[in-house]
Amino acid sequence: MATASTTPKRYKAMNVDDRRDHSNGRVYRGTVRRDTVRRILENEWVDGAVCEGRYTDDYKRDMARNYGKGAVDPEAVIASMDRVEPKHCWVGLREDGRQVITVYWSFQSYSVEIDTRKVRFDFGRDDEDDEDDEDDEEAVVTGEPAEVFEELREGDTILWDNKSQPLTVTAGFEQAQERIAEFDHLDTPEVWVEGPRGGEKRLTRSGEAVYAAAFGRTSTDSERVEGLRVVERAE
């Protein structure tokens, strides 16, 4: 489990629109990647989860149990995430400032309130607090380098301090975990990235630090990565 940051980990909500919720309160809603929802749940960056309803073809039984509505353990949502289609993951900014993730599949729906002291979504509103530095203005994912490292997926576009040109992830963290499981002699996660001119580097994590080195170079030739961020997510 990633260590909690001193400042909230930040994501950018995608496909944001402005609407009204069931109580006619204003809400901004955007889509969020399924693996991001899973990571938030697994890291316990939440203030609670609620089942909004579970429906079957037995209407009387459903009604007798109030459609399963009520508080649930976040693990119950995690256990069901594989059945959730990516297009059915949303994050909403409520009128009272709360940020809530909603997921559903078939005839089941859950909402999860985010602990905004640990993670926060940006919705691109004019009145949002942009107190974070201008360098992260276009970032989709920010946070401690070791945490962002675990978020990297093939096709993501990333930057870090002292890098003026973005790089593309060619092999992400999950693929690194698969390689470690397959080959006994590998024990350090590696994320592979490629620059705009085709130069390749590998990122490695050691504790809470992330390092970058060109392929074929030794660990003594690596540089410590600061300000790692995702500026564009792979679809």
Top keywords for this entry?
7-stranded antiparallel β-sheet; 5 helices; 16% helix; alpha+beta; disordered N terminus; single chain; 2 domains; 235 residues
SSE map:
Elements: E1 9-12, E2 14-20, E3 26-31, H1 34-42, E4 46-54, H2 59-64, E5 70-72, H3 74-78, E6 89-93, E7 99-105, E8 108-114, E9 119-122, E10 141-142, H4 145-151, E11 157-159, E12 167-171, H5 173-182, E13 190-194, E14 200-206, E15 209-214, E16 223-224, E17 229-232
Parallel strand pairs: 1-9
Antiparallel strand pairs: 1-10, 2-3, 3-6, 4-5, 4-8, 6-7, 7-8, 11-12, 11-17, 12-13, 13-14, 14-15, 15-16
Total E-strand runs: 17
Q: Note the overall shape.
A: elongated
Cα-based radius of gyration, to the nearest Å: 20 Å
Taking the sheet with the most strands, its summary is:
7 strands, antiparallel
Portion of residues within helices: 10-25%
Strand residue percentage = 35-45%
Q: Determine the mean pLDDT.
A: 80
Q: Biggest sheet: strands side by side, in what order?
A: 2-3-6-7-8-4-5
Oligomer: single chain
Ends apart, CA distance between termini = 25 Å
What does this structure look like?
By secondary structure, the chain is of the alpha+beta class. It has 2 domains: 9-122, no CATH class; 135-232, no CATH class. 16% of the residues lie in helices and 37% in strands. It is built from 5 helices and 17 strands. The protein has helices at 34-42, 59-64, 74-78, 145-151, 173-182, and strands at residues 9-12, 14-20, 26-31, 46-54, 70-72, 89-93, 99-105, 108-114, 119-122, 141-142, 157-159, 167-171, 190-194, 200-206, 209-214, 223-224, 229-232. The strands form 3 sheets. Strands 2-3-6-7-8-4-5 form a 7-stranded antiparallel β-sheet. Strands 16-15-14-13-12-11-17 form a 7-stranded antiparallel β-sheet, with helices on one face. It is elongated, with a radius of gyration of 20 Å. It starts with 8 loop residues before the first strand and ends with a strand.
